[in-house]
């Protein structure tokens, strides 16, 4: 998120959330104020990854939390810690099992971060939700979904995830896993068998899976960036790959809208930026749906920059009233 520079007044108490975003390649932490703005120089990043051990992961998570805490300006106060994590999770027990981090299965992330902040002298609530929930709350708060109360946020990147706000309230389910739009089935389009189900949206339409399909059709590149460049140059396989992915995502959105009567879907993530035409293909699916109430859903790019996941994690504290008990 970009905007004019701002100056804090440290002569009055300033409530801040310590936001943590854990994903398959990195973990970040930052301090975020009650207006959804990151405190300057408080954002820190360390690696995670498929080959990381439990000790490696704990060192990275603990490190960014301590670094962000050390950036606390004089006169400011941390009022809570919000954690957005790749799923699946168990929000009741504070456990996480990120698909792309094999060494963490039912890992007690909430308790671990709680112990780190306690060692720093903080006695504040620590809230864990799936990263899709966090990013949807960020879009609703300061992004593309402001003023809209029936929203799905999506990330189309290395994986595909999402979160839901319906009737102005976050929908998470008992374990916190509602919104796994990447793992709904898309009929008549076959992807890779990554999850034992080649009809799963993520197996068809994530960045790596889109590239894999293109390679099966003769594309010689290996990254989403290379595929986007080939698309811009008019490469026929790249054009077909983008159209296929856009259709698959559009079908999933149509199904979610038919189920939940969504008004808006905000989509971010690295691969979503490959070309604006990706959104065109999604919207064409919606335009041809047989239900008028499905055709009304708007599909828009995220209104947030790379700060979005951290703003979303902070929203778990600053906008906790939207979460179920």
Automatic annotation (TrEMBL):
<dbReference type="Pfam" id="PF00480">
    <property type="entry name" value="ROK"/>
</dbReference>
<dbReference type="InterPro" id="IPR043129">
    <property type="entry name" value="ATPase_NBD"/>
</dbReference>
<dbReference type="InterPro" id="IPR049874">
    <property type="entry name" value="ROK_cs"/>
</dbReference>
<comment type="similarity">
    <text>Belongs to the ROK (NagC/XylR) family.</text>
</comment>
<dbReference type="InterPro" id="IPR000600">
    <property type="entry name" value="ROK"/>
</dbReference>
<protein>
    <submittedName>
        <fullName>ROK family protein</fullName>
    </submittedName>
</protein>
